[in-house]
Structure formats: C-alpha cells, structure tokens
Write a structure and sequence with these properties.
about 425 residues, elongated, alpha/beta
Length: about 425
C-alpha cells in the first residue's frame, strides 16, 4: 500500500503552497485568486527517509455560484478515498469558519487519520488563534506557515508516523510519459477520462477548465505509462489572465517532460496554426508524436473524407511526414484505445536501439545502389554507420567528406532508415562525421 497524503481544505488557505513545500517544486499554480487548483494534483515527497505521494486538491466549498464547485467536491472526496492520511488545512488569519465545520464532517466520514494544520501562523499572536480549531474535535492542531516552513517539521513527523512502510523514492522512473496536448476545448480531458474510466479531470464545456498539468499512472496492453493532461495552449494574444499564462508555460514544460505527445485537434476546425507550433516544438525537442483528430463523429463524411483531411494536415506540417494520424471520438470512445496503442508503439520506436551490424548491412547496400552525388569533383564515400546514444534516434554516418552531403541525399537516407527500421512517429537525426 503506497503512502498517500491528501491536502484538503476550503479555498485560499494555502494548500498549494504547502504542496509545493512538500514536493519541493513549484508544481501547483499559486495565485491569490481563490479556486485556482481545480483538479487533484500529484507530487512526491520525502521526510526522514519515508517516501510518500502528495495530493493537492481544489478548495472544498458549498453554496457558491461557481459551477466547478460540485465537481471540486467530487474530486476532494475521491482524493480522500485514495489517501492513507489527510492534512486538513485551516487559516489562523480568518479563524474558524462555517465552511471549516462542514468540511470537518466530510473528513470524519472518511475514517482516515487527520492532521489539522492551522496555516498562516507566522507570528506568536496568530499561533494563539490556532487553539480555536480544537473546537472541531479532530485532535491536535499544528500551527504552521506553509510560506516560510515553520511548524511543518512537527506536522510531517506526525504524518509519517502513520505510515506502515517506507514507500518508494520515485515510482515513475523508466515509465513512458505520454502527454495530451492541444488547444483549449478540443477534448483533451474527455480523452483522459474516457481512457481512465474515472473522472480524473474536471470537464465542463467552458474552455480552459484544466489549468494544471495532471499526471495519471495507467496500465494498458500490459504496459505501464503515465498520462499527462495539460491546460490548453492558446495563442499568446488571448492570454488575458496571469493564470492562463502560467498554464501555457506549464503545457510547454509538460511537453519537455514527456516522451510522446498526443496532439489533439478538433475535426470541425481542422489543424490551426497553434497546432502546427506545438508539432514543430515537439519535433525540435525530439519527442514522439501521434495526431488524434477528435470529434470525428461530428463530421459529414463521403468517400475519401479522411484521406483528404490527412493530406491537408501533412501539407500544413510539411516537411514532417512521419506522424501517425488517427480519427477518433473521445465522447463515443471511438478508436481512443488505438490512439494509446499507437502512442506506446511510438515510445518503443523512440527508444529502440538498432544493432550496428544491421544498420551497416541494410544501409550500405542502399548507398551502393544510390551513391551520394559528387560535389566540386569530390566523391563522398560512406564507410560505416552506427546509432549514437541520444534522447531520440540519432544515426551517425562516417564518411570522407561530410560537408558535401546534400540535404536531398540526407532526406533519401532518412526515408530509407524509416522504411527499414520502423521509426514511425519519431524524429530521426542524421549526423555526418569524418572517418
């Protein structure tokens, strides 16, 4: 049983600040607008040699106008179910509120060990206010400051004392990370939820619901992987709020963290310039890619509609032509498992090592049939080929005049490599070195 700590409480009591302190990363978006964290958010922490997963949750409220409110409540309840113990955060500055009392009842029902953290106790006077939370009847109150860390040591000592085992340092090492990227409202969270079968992301028809990148561990086709759902990437001009800006940055960071990205596009709107940007960025960073054309069920079809659509996509992303394109519908679960299967296959293509003997046997024969054209009276001779260690397939060609290899010949070699060694969905780098 993993050690899982859920941080819960009403909005704006400092849950994300504590979460970031525990996982020692600026992972959750913090802003003094209440209700910034909407989904459950996971990170890993360590204290006195014990490892644990931390879940940061959206603020639990009842009776507000916010249409995310009931969704957030559901998410908090799910987090309570998953957790082995709970840090219930309250705010010394505001004192005990009716919301805190309601929440205490929800937590009591979960029958999990509860630690009451009275945040913003950064002065002796405010620490005195912490005692009023004993009224909740949840046991000891820990006055802390998530901002400067005071009191968090005592809180963590108490938390880790409930763990039955030491836990695992990094449960995710060596597991493919697959991110779901795309513009807002193309159906990324719907895809994630359809795959996971649980409502992991809050989905409403308001664009920009997901503000943080969310990691979900997943097993399918006997393969473990981590799915990362991100806030939609919007054109910069449309980024009004700071939070939106952070979300775009987060999406770009998610791209960096992932091995393969599924770029989701809206079938009714087609491939937009923003999608092309994501694709070229992913290519420059050496990521594997799959394009999922979502909402395909809404498109009027005739013979050849899909082919025509595919051609249009490839024209817009030229010269990139190695990305598999799958027409699907997250809503009807149509071909969504194919999308995942393809993403896992692309990961294998990205991490495969082709034996040197195989590369030389196959490619030298191709080169002999089609030698590089001579330049300035110089004949290029390629003698030896090998794959070099890198984040994505990188093949070194050793030859006498590397500077005279023409781009057209480089494309010819890349096409032959793809044909023989199955590099669908991944960029391939060719390096020419002097032998």
């Amino acid at each position: 049983m993993a050690n899982i700590v859920a941080i819960v409480g009403r909005p704006n009591v400092g849950k994300s600040t504590l979460f970031n302190r525990l996982v020692e990363k600026r992972q959750a978006i913090m802003d003094d607008v209440s209700g910034v964290t909407r989904d459950r958010h996971y990170g890993y922490g360590e204290w006195t040699g014990k490892f644990f997963t931390v879940i940061d949750t959206g603020g639990y409220v009842t009776g507000s106008e916010d249409k995310f409110e009931s969704e957030i409540r559901k998410q908090v309840k799910m987090a309570l179910e998953e957790a082995s113990c709970v840090i219930f955060m309250v705010d010394c500055y505001d004192g005990l509120t009716g919301f805190d009392k309601d929440f205490a009842n929800v937590i009591r029902a979960s029958k999990k060990p509860v630690f009451l953290a009275a945040n913003k106790a950064d002065t002796t006077e405010k620490s005195m206010h912490a005692s009023e939370f004993y009224e909740l009847g949840l046991g000891e109150v820990f006055p802390i400051s998530a901002e400067n860390g005071s009191g968090t040591g005592e809180l963590l000592d108490a938390v880790v004392s409930t763990f039955e085992e030491e836990g695992v340092e990094d449960p995710d090492a060596g597991i493919p990370k697959i991110s779901i990227l795309g513009r807002p409202n193309v159906g990324k969270s719907s895809l994630l939820n359809a795959l996971l079968g649980t409502e992991r992301s809050i989905v409403t028809d308001e664009a920009g619901t997901t503000r943080d990148a969310i990691h979900s561990r997943y097993k399918m086709f006997n393969q473990d992987f981590i799915l990362i759902d991100t806030a939609g990437i919007r054109k910069k001009a449309k980024v009004h709020e700071d939070i939106e800006f952070y979300s775009v940055l987060r999406s770009l960071r998610t791209l960096e963290e992932s091995d393969v990205c599924i770029v989701v596009i809206d079938a009714e709107r087609g491939l937009e310039s923003q999608d092309v940007n994501i694709i070229s960025l992913a290519q420059r960073q050496g990521k594997g890619m799959v394009i999922m054309v979502n909402k395909w069920d809404l498109v009027e079809k005739e013979t050849g509609t899909a082919e025509k659509f595919k051609t249009e996509i490839l024209e817009k992303i030229a010269p990139i032509e190695y990305i598999p394109i799958i027409f699907a519908s997250a809503l009807n679960k149509q071909r969504i498992y194919q999308v995942m299967e393809k993403a896992v296959e692309v990961y294998k293509n990205k991490t495969k090592k082709v034996p040197t003997s195989q590369l030389n046997d196959t490619m030298l024969a191709e080169i002999e049939r089609n030698p590089p054209p001579s330049m300035k009276g110089k004949f290029v001779q390629i003698k030896y080929i090998t794959q070099v260690p890198a984040r994505f397939p990188s093949i070194a060609f050793f030859c006498n005049h590397p500077q005279y290899i023409m781009p057209s010949y480089e494309r010819f070699l890349e096409n032959r490599l793809r044909e023989h060694f199955q590099f669908e969905g991944v960029p391939v780098r060719l390096i020419f070195r002097k032998k």
